[in-house]
Design goal:
The chain is mainly α. It has 14 helices and 2 strands. It is flat. One of its GO terms (cellular component) is ATP-binding cassette (ABC) transporter complex.
Length: about 375
């Protein structure tokens, strides 16, 4: 056993000549012997160093290439006569186009609202300890994600072929003594499209909500249960707000995709935006300008939803990030402020350089004249 402060047998201890020492002067490096007559480094040595910013030439090259391709694309849009921008301007606010756009938004709102409500219920079933509820939700998700949305809408639209009448009555019999409807009169084209879109969306919304709930740390559940918070309040006040951070981005992607996905309802002759555009360009033989009208309206609503998504995500990021991401207005204001300050600094540096040059010239003149 070796006591603290004594050297072990056979080891004379550290060699004072070989051990590095720190000199008394500030700035002396470790392992060098200090010299009393050596003057210290000048105090302004660090200030005299020039800091050179690293240049990323590949980034500049790729940026120039992207700008060139963008300019080429814009130039082709403006100069190519086959785009027929006069036809585009004539139909962009056409009443038939606006009516189709209104139907597109109606189907999107109904299917998204119903899909996320039903998807939330299915997500709770998938997380349930009940084997029956879990299996039922899993089977629903498997079926509606396996069948294309176009096929689903056609099946609902032709449901009268399978079941001529629908109603309530004695179970496991065809006796609808309580209430009975003709299937063809109950399920219209709009109802079949809305039902197909809603049920299809619910399967994907369920997985989005379930993934967001599973992203919450298990300790949050345990801490809330330890405090005696009821299960319902625990879920809606503690777990769900934290899960929203993971749910919101995917949910907005689904909404944006659903706006464009409603174009499949043309199969049941619903005059939504894409169907209306098809009818018009088949009559006028101008497909490209009319398709550009549809693209423009889809782009407008995608942009609006993207802006809303940014601010919603920014709000939910308040508890997880030290500094929130700047808004577009803040980015613009900071860029303008930095540019303005750079101009002021450049003017001030020019004045200082001019003043320094005059001083050096004066000192040189005085030293030349002085005997």
């Amino acid at each position: 056993m070796t006591l603290t402060g004594t050297a072990p047998p056979g080891n004379p201890g550290p060699n004072p000549e070989a051990s590095p020492e720190i000199g008394p002067e500030v700035g002396t490096e470790v392992g060098t012997e200090s010299r009393p007559g050596t003057p210290p480094a000048p105090a302004d040595h660090a200030q005299a160093l020039t800091v050179v910013r690293q240049r990323h030439w590949w980034r500049w090259g790729v940026s120039v290439l992207v700008l060139f391709l963008l300019a080429q694309f814009i130039w082709s849009l403006v100069t190519t006569p086959n785009y027929r921008w006069d036809v585009f301007a004539r139909y962009i606010f056409d009443p038939a186009i606006l009516a189709g756009l209104r139907l597109t938004l109606e189907l999107t709102a109904v299917s998204i609202l119903g899909g996320f409500v039903l998807g939330g219920v299915l997500a709770v079933f998938r997380l349930s300890d009940s084997a029956v509820l879990n299996a039922a939700a899993a089977g629903y998700i498997w079926f509606f994600r396996s069948v294309p949305i176009l096929v689903q809408i056609l099946i609902w639209y032709n449901l009268g072929y399978l079941y001529p009448t629908l109603g309530l009555g004695t179970p496991f019999t065809g006796d609808h003594w309580l209430v009975e409807f003709q299937t063809t009169s109950l399920i219209s084209a709009w109802f079949a499209a809305a039902l197909g879109l809603t049920l299809h969306q619910a399967a994907y919304s369920c997985e989005i909500i379930r993934g967001g709930i599973l992203s919450v740390d298990q300790g949050q559940w345990e801490a809330a249960a330890a405090l005696g918070i009821p299960a319902g309040r625990r879920f809606f006040r503690i777990i769900l707000p934290q899960a929203a951070r993971a749910i919101v981005p995917n949910a907005f992607n689904e909404i944006i995709g659903q706006i464009k996905g409603t174009s499949v309802v043309f199969i049941v002759a619903l005059p939504e935006l894409f169907y209306t555009v098809q009818v018009i360009y088949n009559r006028s033989s101008t497909p490209i300008p009319l398709l550009m009208v549809a693209v423009a309206w889809y782009a407008v609503f995608t942009t609006v939803l993207s802006v809303i998504q940014f601010y919603v995500e920014r709000r939910y990021s308040r508890g997880t990030q030290r500094t929130l991401p700047p808004t577009p207005w803040q980015r613009t204001r900071r860029a303008v402020t930095a540019w303005w300050r750079s101009l002021d600094d450049r003017d001030g540096r020019s004045d200082r350089d001019a003043g320094t040059g005059n001083t050096e010239h004066t000192e040189h003149t005085e030293s030349t004249v002085r005997p």
